[in-house]
Design a protein that fits this description.
This protein is 73% helix and 0% strand. It is built from three helices and no strands. It starts with 5 loop residues before the first helix and ends in an 18-residue tail after the last helix.
Length: 125
């Protein structure tokens, strides 16, 4: 930021000693140090707040991406379930739909119903 060498600081100190005087110089130096310290703390606080807001925005973006991914998985599962329903007998379809409606009504969230087990039995000869 600022590049002040030792020789420049020495010139500033000599000019301050001449202008302010040796009696008031220690008090002025303490006051200037306190003001500079407050400014540094304020700048550090502003930097931290900006960083915190940036992290918060990143977390919100990540949360939205996760929600979108979950919704796409949920919709793909629901669509694949709907696509597989015609494969089952006509008597199983209303049963699955009624189960899904009951689950949605009880939980408030639409959840896909589990697939019914097929009733095909192997014949033993």
């Amino acid at each position: 930021m600022f590049d002040v060498s030792f020789s420049e600081l020495l010139i500033i100190a000599v000019v301050a000693l001449i202008v302010i005087g040796p009696e008031k110089l220690p008090k002025v130096a303490r006051t200037a140090g306190a003001i500079i310290g407050r400014m540094q703390r304020y700048v550090a606080q502003v930097k931290e707040e900006v960083n915190r807001e940036a992290r918060f925005a990143e977390l919100q973006q990540l949360q939205n991406e996760i929600r979108q991914g979950a919704e796409s998985v949920k919709s793909s599962i629901a669509s694949s379930l709907e696509d597989s329903l015609p494969e089952y007998p006509a008597t199983a379809q209303p049963k699955l739909r009624s189960q899904r409606k009951k689950q949605a009504a009880s939980s408030g969230v639409k959840k896909p119903a589990a697939r019914p087990k097929s009733s095909s039995k192997k014949s033993v000869s």
